[in-house]
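Hi D.,

Good news: the full-assembly prediction came through. Inputs first.
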Amino acid sequence: MDWIQQLVNGISLGSIYALIALGYTMVYGIIKLINFAHGEVFMIGAFVGFYAIAGWGLGFFPALIIAMAVCAGMGMLIERVAYRRLRGSTRIAALITAIGISLFIQYLFIYFRGAQPEAYPEVISNQTFNIFGAQISSQSLMILGTSIVLMIVLQFIVHKTKIGKAMRAVSHDMDAARLMGINVNTTISATFAIGSSLAGAAGVFFGVYYTKIEPLMGVIPGVKAFVAAVLGGIGIIPGAMVGGLVLGVVETVVSGLGYSLWRDAAAFVILILILLFKPSGIFGKNAREKV
Amino acid sequence: MNTKKIKGFWLFVILSIIVYFAVQMAANIGMVNNYHVNTLVYICINIILAVSLHLVIGITGQFSIGHAGFLAVGAYISAIVTMKLSLPFPIALIIGGIVAALTGLIVGIPSLRLRGDYLAIATLGFAEIIRIIFLNIDAVGGAAGMQVTKMTTWTSAFICLFITVLVIVNFTNSRHGRACISIRENEIAADAMGINTTYYKVAAFAIGSFFAGIAGGLYAHNFYIIQPVQFGFLKSFDILIFVVLGGLGSLSGAVISAILLTIVSTFLQSYPETRMIIYSAVLIIVMLYRPQGLLGTKEITDLFKRKSVKGGS
Amino acid sequence: MEKRPLLKVNQAGISFGGLKAVSGFDLEIHQGELVGLIGPNGAGKTTSFNLLTGVYVPTEGDIFLEGVRLNGLPPYQVTRKGISRTFQNIRLFNDLSVLDNVKVANHSRAKHSMLSSILRLPSHFNGEKEMEDKSIELLRIFQLEHVKDELAKNLPYGQQRRLEIARALAAGPKLLLLDEPAAGMNPQETHDLMELIRFIREKFDLTILLIEHDMNLVMGICERIYVLDHGQLIAEGLPEEIRSNPKVIEAYLGEEVSSDA
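Then the structure:
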């Protein structure tokens, strides 16, 4: 029953991707920007969680909440300082700025802290359960459970609250939303805050699950989460969740088959195939430039 | 109009010859040491990369952020040709360029249907795949890399640079170059005016990849060793910043920023983090306050022209 | 034997996601005609232009130019077959000079190869010279020669509209499609434009199909008029027939009545 274990590992990894992908997809949905710095928010989340647990001796959930709060603030700060000025500029200028912000945070962090990795403390007791013959760790279950809760909370926010309605309105038509009296700046800030807090949570999960964190850890998961967002249909929230899970499972399967060096390539192959054959993603609708 | 361009062409040729011999003589009489010559070679390589990406991004408007992938192809293929097949260096350079151009076709034909940030992400993905492929080929040393004899000289680097600039300038100043620019300006209108947009996008991409491959050959034979890690996203970013900083659409802008940034980064060689902080901060500031880059779509010669016109009237 | 029409559209249509934007579109234009296509906002006029020029592939029906079927050809090939157009919202190459805008449209009529340009062979210089001469000649006809080195984006609106027509002509069309050429023009400019359209039609032996909102312009220069409403042709005929056609009046009722402009 090895494949069940693989599947659970894949879903755990996938739920981390999904949480990061949600931030990408929400931001893209609202301001059409690939927020490259999102991977760095994830990294900062992992470190905040680390310092909260190892430094202040907090438990998993308090550390998680602190990491999410710090990341929410960081996301809003990035938006306020860099992206807000870019709203009228070309997509390319926005993309380059986002890449710039991403590298700036990485290397500023290394400059002040150093590049050495940290070992995440074991904050959740590591038991393994035997389910249908597969070894499943308590950590996997905890990550999975918390991710599901966060996603349900997100769905609630987006569909049932006032700010959620404002977010959907702004992403549909920013000018019309403004005319209807929605405060667009606040709404975009809130989107960054929510997306970034999810990335922060993903950072803590990543630390707990893989135990090693370092300042450049955000790059690869960041890009892969973007792939997950594109896979599910960028701008579509359930798409990001499904895309993340699919990507996690595919990667685990590729590693499981003994091609672990090709694991990273799998994500990019998926990306390219989806861009070429259905750029709008699994759940997306096709849009065309108006002539 | 045409006579001006012809004048500019000969000016460029004469200037190149002067620069080449000046450096050559300075090296012969010991005015510049090996370290300086090596920096100059590095500048040549970076200009080739900048100008080749300029053709894709600045002229044709196709936003590729995976140029290091073609650099890697040129580097590895040319290294295989000299080290494993023992063929002469110039042949290795050409083969490296051709294989990089073919890779450019393979990457470009499917992905150039995409636009804007989707294209950017696809090229990034392709570049990573190329890197991972080299990482997984044991014959080229995998992650440990491949030993390469140093063969790149000031002369070989300068000749390659000269040819690259010449070809790309000549291409740009023809109906073919105008077709590419029209795609950058308005793809729908270009199509409606009878321009085969796919053909020209792919052609620009393949030519750009060819010269990136040439640069790869020079790069590989300048460093004693090549490793997949040298050709990651950061390398693509380094090349991108030359083009963006200089001004999207300005060849001289790309050349100038390649020269300046290469000099800056040799000074900051021992402080890689500082270098990246400066690079990224500069890029952010330029994008926020002068998104068209330093020169915009203008060339440095245009600036002189305007001044001389004003002075004359 | 009856003369074959230059353009024949047979029951063409397109639907987007089940929604029929244009359907059952029939059109027949003979060599040398000047035909108008009118209709209220959202009637499908620009969509039908997009069908004719290959921007959209028709989901039903056929389009023939001189008997050659155009369905499914990409826009650049349609242009090379002899249909070129202007755009409702001007689409010039903004950062290119006026001259270069026209040269781009000349592109497919020049022969010199990429290699000849890279190697600076004589054929490159001859080809470029010829393109330049032709383009300047065209600019002269459109009274734009004096601004040939200006960037297109720096031209005043009226000149941009004229440049777009000049550029479309540079592609060497048999059939010229003009999409609201008088949009945003004052009466004097519109009048000059009418003169220009008449003039180029004579000069280049052109056939012209134009979409227009300005009734004065349409009624003033078009020999025949087609009327679209809700993606369907509702009338076809001479200007005076159209003016008194009850269906047309009904379609325009409630719409802005531009004929009093």
